[in-house]
Amino acid sequence: MWGENYMKLRDDLQYLAPYTAGKKAPGALKLSSNENPLGPSPLAMESIKSSVGEIHIYPEGTSAQLREALAARDGLDPSQYLVGNGSDEVLTMIAGAFINPGDRGLTAVHTFSEYNFAVRLFGGKMDFFDLNQGALDLKSAQKCLTSRHRMVFLCNPNNPTGGYFNHESLEEFLAGVPSDLLVVVDEAYREYSTAGDFPRTLELLKTYPNLLITRTFSKIYGLAALRVGYAVGAPGLIRDISVVKQPFNVGTLNQGAALAALGDESFLHESLEINAQGKKFWYKSCEDLGLVYYPTQANFLAIKVPKPAKEIFTRMIELGVAIRPLDSFGLPGWIRITIGSPEQNQKCLAAFKISLND
Known about the structure:
The chain is an alpha/beta fold and 358 residues long. It has 12 helices and 14 strands. The radius of gyration is 21 Å and the shape is globular.
């Protein structure tokens, strides 16, 4: 019989909470995880079908073709890219490469929890700075920095609020922090942004070698189940992070689907159009209902609700729609709704109105 003393979890992990995912209920419309309502890129699906016969062979370990395609698109070199099993793995690799026990990271108080997870997984500690109207306040971030901070994580647009900081703010921040501080800008939703002053992060790489950008194929490209994310940075930085990369971390089908999706301009355009229409729909709906919301640069909307968010969530699940209460983000009076297709938005709004009035 197993005893109680054969193994003990590390003391510093005792209170590390597991990730809270968007809920999925049988038969319910899922608008809780910011997935593309159009589904996956059709070209990506064709790529998967054509590659199924190769699944007995190990994948190419460096995702070379995908890195070359990304570099060609961005006007950079393939050595500046690292591909991972979703952005989550990329974030973990970053912390694994640079965080020593006792080191400190910095991120926003209401943002994606995986930054905190990655730093604490390797014995680090996380500190937090404030938001300003749903966007990361980089002036607040700079004031919080100390000599003990090894890296800062900036989600832009921010999940779960959808706010963003602009190019000028980021450049000013980079110019004002130590050159040995790693600045990780997570741009999981950047393809959805329509702001003219959204940061041109790739341009900033030339001046700031301590800048690292993370992006994903999970959102606008519709490949969330395939887990393909990547980092872009200085070749030396990418080389150092690659030391902790598993040898075959991204499968052949995944690499091929991402490569195909990258070239599916028609799908990308349609995804942007449906999101733009959905934003207008939800803005007007919230205004008609007298509800406060954060204008978004992403494919979701954070809305302040007049009753506990978990009550709204529970009632909407009963009505066949899954949304995200933001309690796990430290925002108990808010919910997050993924922007869907016109039909999905209408169904969600009907359930939302009932949940507000019950």
